[in-house]
Design brief:
The chain has 235 residues and is α+β, with helices and mostly antiparallel strands. It is 51% helix and 18% strand.
């Protein structure tokens, strides 16, 4: 007999996995684009879509029910395509670490929309509601997926952070590190001016391969934490 507790846990797991699938599906990657093309041409997708339409005509479903069934319809063919892209325990642990250490995911993660980036470039208000002290932001960018953010952080830590620490002044507790990863990481906007609301036309930047991060030293834990990390235009 299946208990309610087990059903609840299974439901929460399924919901999280579906969210992970859809996050990747919505990411601006070539893989996501290829999958969308495959699904659009899939006989299974078309057959299921026709089935939902017939159910709606027969029962007069509410918008909520149609949205729920639509999510399930999209989810079934997605599962096979994205199985290997559901975050592993290691990736999940990395995301939890980044959330605890700083604001990278909240301001520059894969869930950030172009609308939020545009608003930040115009107003200086970040997706998490925060504002910069200077009242404007020199760049407003985000990664195309959380996994790309994690990979970029690993790239800087494994190749550049140690040298930056060695070359820093004694007693330095905050270090900026940047590099070109050679991989398309994200996109965003660059304000032309430096006054909130008077930034002039915005420059749209796509296919950013450079990344910049700020690392902060925690003496109590004796570790360098990722305060923030974001894609930047090439220099």
């Amino acid at each position: 007999m299946v208990t309610f507790a087990v059903d609840t846990k299974a439901g929460e797991k399924s919901a999280q996995e579906m969210k992970n699938l859809l996050d990747v599906y919505d990411s601006r990657t070539q893989f996501a684009s290829d999958v969308k093309d495959d699904l659009a041409q899939s006989p299974l997708t078309q057959t299921m879509g026709e089935g939902v339409s017939k159910i709606d005509q027969a029962l007069g479903l509410s918008d909520e029910s149609k949205a729920y069934i639509g999510a399930l319809t999209a989810g079934l063919p997605l599962v096979g395509k994205f199985r290997k892209f559901v975050p592993s325990k290691k990736l999940t642990a990395q995301l939890d670490r980044l959330r605890a250490e700083g604001h990278a995911l909240e301001r520059h993660g894969g869930a950030i929309t172009d609308e939020q980036l545009y608003a930040r470039a115009r107003t200086g208000v970040a997706p998490d509601g925060s504002k910069t002290r200077r009242g404007y932001t020199p760049t407003s960018t985000a990664f195309n997926s959380d996994e790309l953010l994690v990979n970029a952080d690993d790239f800087l830590r494994n190749n550049y952070l140690d040298d930056a620490i060695k070359n820093a002044e004694p007693g330095t507790l905050r270090i900026k590190v940047s590099a070109d990863t050679g991989v398309e990481l994200g996109r965003g906007y660059i304000p032309v001016g430096k006054k909130t609301g008077q930034s002039g036309p915005l420059q749209t930047v796509n296919d950013l391969t450079n990344v910049e991060a700020w690392y902060v030293y925690d003496p109590a834990k004796n570790i360098w934490q990722t305060n923030t990390i974001y894609p930047i235009p090439g220099k």
